[in-house]
Specification:
The chain is of the alpha+beta class. It has 5 helices and 11 strands. It folds into 2 domains: 84 residues, Gcn5-related N-acetyltransferase (GNAT) (Aminopeptidase, 3-Layer(aba) Sandwich), CATH 3.40.630.30; 132 residues, 3-Layer(aba) Sandwich (Aminopeptidase), CATH 3.40.630.
């Protein structure tokens, strides 16, 4: 099995094991880091183990090979097709283009309130108060306001995920997403790691951008958000 096939599990049992909450068959990140979890494998026993990690009404997101078949005690909130893409450009990533004004910055703890507000507005995926702890997050400010960001989420030996790519609706069309992704790709490749990302299959605009930047579709999966109901 490829390391990216059960990527959340493999992150939680290797490079990000210090974040792991879980048991033998189910693990998850702390809710304030990210609402992602994983099963090994997606059996009823594993789902029961996951339910034991969740408080009633609390949901977690899973990346699965097929739509979920959950036992009593869990409810499927939503499921949708998801693409996993890996960076396969044989050449070095181009230098990040210069930006006028405030430029490209590394986001810190003091930026978290603005990061969460931008994520809430643009919905790039689960984003919590401690998500920034997963890796480097970069941002672009205009007139002092955070208008775009992207960062590193899942990490496992040899691979790092680019995530939370988002731009304020009032500032789209300036190439900010491409600039941020390019900078992160450079950083990840400088560590001799392979960048990868996940995107909804129906987000054709984002997929087109990622392909122009050198990412290629690797596999089709299912994002399933499940919630403890008992």
């Amino acid at each position: 099995m490829h390391a990216l096939d059960n990527v959340i599990w493999n992150a939680l049992t290797t490079s990000q094991a210090h974040f792991s909450e879980g048991r033998e068959l189910a693990r998850k990140f702390p809710a304030d880091v990210t609402s992602l979890g994983a099963l090994l494998p997606p059996t009823h026993e594993a789902y029961d183990s996951l339910a034991g990690l969740l408080r009633k009404g609390v949901a977690t997101g899973l990346f699965l090979e097929a739509p979920p078949q959950v036992p009593d005690g869990l409810t499927v909130v939503v499921t949708l097709p998801l693409l996993q893409m890996t960076y396969e450009n044989r050449k070095r990533a181009p230098l990040t283009p210069a930006l006028p004004g405030d430029g490209l910055i590394e986001l810190t703890e003091s930026d978290v309130p603005e990061m969460m507000a931008l994520a809430e507005l643009t919905k790039p995926g689960p984003f919590g108060r401690r998500t920034r702890e997963l890796g480097t997050y970069l941002g672009i400010r205009r007139s002092g306001t955070l208008v775009a960001m992207a960062g590193e989420r899942l990490r496992l030996p040899g691979f790092t995920e680019v995530s939370a790519v988002c731009t304020h609706p009032d500032h789209v069309g300036h190439g900010y997403a491409g600039t941020l992704i390019t900078a992160l790709v450079e950083q990840i490749r400088n560590r001799s790691e392979v960048p990868f990302l996940h995107v909804r299959e129906d987000n054709t605009r984002a997929i087109g951008l990622y392909e122009r930047l050198g990412f290629r579709k690797r596999l089709r999966a299912h994002l399933a958000v499940v919630r403890r109901s008992q």
